[in-house]
Amino acid sequence: MKVSNLLGKAKGSALLLLGTASVVVSMDANAIPVFARQTGFKCVACHVGGMFPQLTSLGRMFKLTGYTMGNRPNLDGLEVQNDYPPVAIMVQGAKQYYNNTSHSVNGNAPSSSADLQVVSLFAGGKITDNFGAFMQWTGQKYANLQSGSQVGYNAASIDNTEFRYADRTVTPNSDLILGAYINNRAMMSDVWNNFGAWESGWINYFNAGNAQAPTTYLMGESSQHAAVGVGGYFFKNKTWYGELAVYKSPTHGPFSVLTAGATSVGNTGVTSLLEPSPYFRFAYNKEWGANSFEAGVHGMMSYVYGTPLFGTSNSQPGGPVSAYHDIGLDAQYQYVLDPHYFAAHARVTRELMNNTPGVANWQGLIAQNATDNLTETYMDATYVYEAKYGAQLSYASATGSSDTGLYAMGVNGAGSPTGSPNWTSWTPNIFWQPYQNLRIGYMYTYYTQMGGVNSGNGLVFNAAKFSPQNFNTSMLYVGFIY
Amino acid sequence: MKNVKTILTLSALSLALGACSTGITKSRNLGNPNVSGNTLAQQVCSVCHGNIGNSVNGNSVNPTFPNLAGQQKDYLVAQMTAFHEKTRKDPAAQQMMWGIARNFTPKQIDELATFYSNQKPLPNPAHGDAALIAEGQKIFSEGLLDKGVPACMGCHGSNAEGNGVIPRLAGQHANYVYKQLNVFNRDAKTADGKESVPDSELERPTGGVMEMVASGLSDQQKRAMAAYVQSLR
Fold it and tell me: How far is A298 from chain B (nearest CA, A)?
């Protein structure tokens, strides 16, 4: 290469860096996303150490009161000052590393080079004094190959979206919030960051390879944006919380807009929740000093059709192929007092699966057993100092009954899969937030068990042998939200 | 038939939307000058400046947020005005109160100040050890002559009840008081009498006297002061 070319390249890079730096430096307090524009808060007011999506007590109340706190012109056109457009953008980039780059293990690992990979648009906030919205639209370059996780999600589509109504009555002796919502994902209503959509892992591996890490139907991201739920809730004296909702996949009609682009009900890997499926949650919340604690119970009964919905004779029984009954316990502890921010979560969810042996389920898999069970455990702890420097450790695992139709991994004496779903992983994550809307971090996921196998090359997959650690992966990432 | 269903659904949706306007007495709108101070206290301020079971009494749970119950009305007016005008610039003010107060009208500020000054402050037992509290008490009533720190009680009152624009400190969260002392310390002149920050960048520009106090206190003495005033009723 000629020297002048090199110089030209260096100059270009320097200019790009300078440009990025000047954009970052010129951001002021208002240069932040939708709800911050509406409330005038900085991220750290509602998110633990500014670490979205984890909510502080104030963040929980903001959501439970229907995203309505702040200022925005009312529908009657009332003019207000400081009216910023209710939109925001998030961009995520990463360079991902695999422990084993063999394609037979990790599929077509596309993101081994540094790349911008996800872009999200946000809109929403206060619509009337009691009615507000959270809307997200996401474009993702690569399909996430992790089992049960955002399968077929490699295009622009609707993401977490919720419309919420809330009425709050405050007297000297009581404080009662009554609310209702329509959203496109079970548990999107969560305010304690215990569940799928809002767990601490705000950024996914862009390609988790073919790791077999099954989750319950309720928590698995498979249910996202394919069903629409209508729910109601109360929050009494900032202490008692109760919630009931019913979810169903809309195939047509006005509600199906909430699944736009995300799903095509009846396709393999897309959930078809065609029967009304109830969801509930009850929780106790206590706040003292800088601490807060929550403990609760959650559950859902999901009735899911098989795939293809309309097709071969063995895949259309005219009713649900799978019934998933999930019930679990969840808890959260937080300490929020600048400069120290700490949050920890623990959850156990147990699922009973009623399968129809011989018929393909929503994933296109044919279960061997009429009933299976899976118990999923999730825990995390996050510490953030001065809303700038953070570290997190999360633990995830599941154990359950073996089913070679559902789980292709594991090995017995003859070298064929046992169909054990058991897996365990640890994910340390460190990050730095030089500005409140820029996060740079590194995370590493280490599997100590997969397919019921703990170590050695005992794992059979696609007729080849692997160890659980072959699926370890790590990622250097950057997230920017404006 | 399908059309009928669509029309019905849309009608139900618009009805639901209509029902959402439960009126200005429960509004959380921070941009509407017609929302009263009492409504804002109930619907918005109570989220942080209230405690469980009695959200509107101005006694906060998390020490990030100061207790407002029984605070001097003139002080509350001055601070809310400073948040509104973005002249009070300490980090917590910027993180939360700039947004809350950005569209406050003088009438809303007056109503809010009246409301909170009339609330009853609750006891707020201090967790510091007895020796620390005793050290704070001594400085509170005698000052530190060699450091040029006047007795706090001279301005804040013998029981730290405050007076006019001088705030009540009794029962205030120690963590909040300690952090504010550090704010004044950052604003203070350097030892050789030079301004350490230009006037336009002072975090609390009206805190001239407090700059002198805070810069004369060691970190331990700031903690002692803060623990002592929290223990007062």
Answer: 24
